[in-house]
Structures
1.
Amino acid sequence: MRKLVALVLMILFLVSCSPSAEKVSADWTERQNELRESINRIELLKGELPGAWSGDLLPEDGLEKLMAKDSRIQQNHQQRADLIKEASKIADKLTALDREKLSEDQNRLTDQLVEYLRLESLGLDQERAFFNGLVSDEPDEVLGDLFQAVIANRQLQRDVIAGVVAVSTPLPNEPTEEEAEPTETPEVELTPPPVAETPTEPAPPVAAGYRLNQATQLFEPLSESDPMAVLLTFDDVPMTEGAKESIAIAKTLKEQNIPAIFFVFGNYLHEAIGQETIIELHEMGFALGNHAQTHQDLSAMSEEMVRQELQFVNDEIEALVGERPKFFRPPFGMTNDTVNRIAREEGMLPMNWTYGYDWEEEYKDDSAALAQIMVETPYLTPGANLLMHDRAVTAGAIGQIVEGLQAKGYHFIDPAEIDLTGQDIIQSQSGAADHE
Ligand SMILES: [Zn+2]
């Protein structure tokens, strides 16, 4: 009898020590957010690869440049390897949580995320083998392996991200077995909530409706602004042969008074077609952003060079339209604290983007496919920052993209509504390549 009492007491003691379902769920959400951020960074780095390949793999350089430790491809590979290592530690903590206290969705996502990391890591190994294979005698075999891993991995990423987005939308009051009180069902938040802090005091004297979260690159509504909004941006304006595409895009948008930012780079700014494009875009009322002069990786440049790159574009634009750009987007999304600081000093808000597809092999010549993915991608979330380019495929798709986004309940952020004062929560971030 005494033994039984001791046993009961012991059980009661253990039960009282074990974390509550709410606590486990909160831990899960936190780990999950961390993981998601790592995954976003990995994805951005992967987006940069096509640009890195075309930059590093020039026939005249042979393989030496590609294999050099400081080549963009090798650095990208290393950065992803580091991120996966870091993410795996977080995933270990996630799987160590009491799975029985998690919901079905949470458990499913946990498994998917672990699988994502496993495949991502496998993909990296195969990429490494591929590099080594390039300098070996049988490159064909390693190439096949690499492609298989890439395809498997891509599909899985889409599933995982779709799952993450599905669970991140606030759940209806859906009691789980563990929780008797439906009102205490923890809301699963994988993306930062649309309104980070509800400002109780009036906002600073800025007519700003949205603030860019530098960590997620999502726009968060300030005060009463509608969270169901996205920003449209177009990079590499003007391309000599494509300048007319920017104008075509702008005309389509203008018909419905839809705002956007056109990020200008320096390549053709001294040519008539480039200058005419800039003036016309400005006269149509679109915001012009700075996309640097020579479209190189600014994070690898000296401070002085970065400043020159940014000032050149700002000076040229000011000479053409009488105003300096207020937004800056680093080429290939490659940035660091110095680049961000200089952009700020030059009076601009630095921004990357959250998704885009018009440079990917699958979409770069197919307007219908591009329009579909831009609207159906799991990356479409409130506050998303959409990246497109001065390209024929985009000009062909933009009407449908706008229609699709509107049908999903989104409206478009006016650049004039963006808070430029910033909290200066600038984080070092390397982003995806926006093609060549
Ligand atoms: Zn670009």
Note: The longest helix spans residues 21-56.
2.
Amino acid sequence: MIVTMANAKGGVAKTTGAILLAMAWARRFEREAVVLDADPQSSASLWRDMAEDAGSGLGLVDVRPANLSTLRRAGRLGADGLVVVDAPPQGRLLEEAMKVADFVIVPTSDSPLDLQQAWATMAAIPSGARAAVLVSRAEVNTRAYADTIAGLDRAGTPRFDTVVRKRQEIKKMMGSLPDSSYEYAQALDELLEVA
Ligand SMILES: Nc1ncnc2c1ncn2[C@@H]1O[C@H](COP(=O)(O)OP(=O)(O)OP(=O)(O)O)[C@@H](O)[C@H]1O
Ligand SMILES: [Mg+2]
């Protein structure tokens, strides 16, 4: 299965989500999961490199750089396992990453202001591909969070029931081997149910 993390808006937890979703799958099935780093910012690759320098590595998660050719061939990798693509905010790599995906996850913050870009990203997903919004880094007791959920539901936007809460442990996780996959394990359950 190929899952692409995409949003035209930056800083919405695409990279964090890609690593933790792959980690959740790898730990669940005790098999290697691949993250394809298609973002020129290369944050996922940096995460892996830092974890290797620290001596832990990323366990069963393999982060590989991706270009148009790699993405077009991702089907072979994803045929029998999980490939999560960390997509860039725009351009041909984003288009290709959405085209090859079995499922597109559109992470969004808990701010209603960010919904326009989540919707624009959803609208750009090729017809036929399944997709849903994942509200991430959420502070669930806030008005902004309630308005975000209400906005998505009013618009009938497909979304994960799972909400990823804002956590200091996740914020500090970059460059290390995560102890837990947090709510991404529940997001994986939802994904496996529909896929
Ligand atoms: N659940 C969370 N709780 C707290 N902080 C989080 C959470 N998820 C992500 N973050 C933090 O939010 C910031 C943005 O996350 P991340 O880099 O994964 O987003 P991105 O969409 O990949 O950004 P970019 O557009 O720069 O690629 C990072 O500092 C990350 O550590
Ligand atoms: Mg990123």
Note: The longest helix spans residues 14-29.
